[in-house]
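Ex. 9. Protein: Kinase-like protein.
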Amino acid sequence: MPTHKQAIRRASPEDSDSDSTATSSSSDSSFDEDAVNARLSPNWCCYRAIIGKWGFRLDTCRDVKRFYQRYWDGLVAQGCTISESDWPGYLRACNGGGDDDLCKDAGLPDNLFRGSRCSDGAQVVIKAVNIRSREYEIVRYLSSPALRKHPMNHCIPVLAFIEVPQDNVVFIVMEEWSPHLESDPPFTLRAFLNTLRQHLEHLTFMHAHHVVHLDICLRNILTNNENRYGCIDFENSRRFDETPSPRILGHRGAETPPEVERGQWSDPYKIDIWASGILMLRASTLTGYEVPEMWHVLRPMLHDDHARRPTAREALKAFNAMVHAIGNERLDSCHP
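Predicted structure tokens for Kinase-like protein:
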């Protein structure tokens, strides 16, 4: 079996989501930022026992086969047919070796692994990051006792931080939430707008604590079974505690504002505002909820000049005013 030191490699530069550089941040410049913030590709087998000591287990071939069997039984009971798209995952588990061998979800990047909590079987997702990375700093900060219960903090709950200092790696154990916005859209217009409100609340919360996300997009918004929506993936994020007016250059995220496309410096907070406007547009198209009044909120958020975009708090205030002006009958109308 390889040693822990052999169990970690850094992904190539092509694997990284961002090449942005900031004029100032809270990161220590005495070490290689690119190295500590690159995605990891751990040998998960080497950390199976350590994760187990914390009360969590990684998915095995047996777990995956049982999942599909229960899922298919439920479909049959409802009179539905089994989709051929489900077969690759089941066959991967069947061909992966013994039932106790780990079974990696091929749809996840190397730094993520599905698992469960030993005490109650609750599903979790475990993410491996460098112990000195910005992502770990920010997720730990947003999950601190002082912040995690704030009503506008919509991060997905973190269940544990499992540090392995000798390998410079930490495993972030999170509740497993799902991207249901497309497959199971909100039932009413009120519920859909509540989804967008939760996003703007979280953006306001992050910015108030000098954190910018820098990769806001639909794939980074997940939901649980209680209609709570949460933000994930802080790989690109920055924290600017001591920089009142930060500027960044060369940022690359899923949604890129015009000044960044032109190769100009930009305000990272206003990059988040632009990306949030695009997210809200895409969510409307995806779910079929067309809200003409929302253009009064979105137009300033998508202004070509980043200096003229609203703050997150201003965008949230405008959004709440828009929702208040929509009548209850329309808000409670069902999905189109």
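Check your answer against this statement. The chain has two domains: 37-59+102-175, 180-331.
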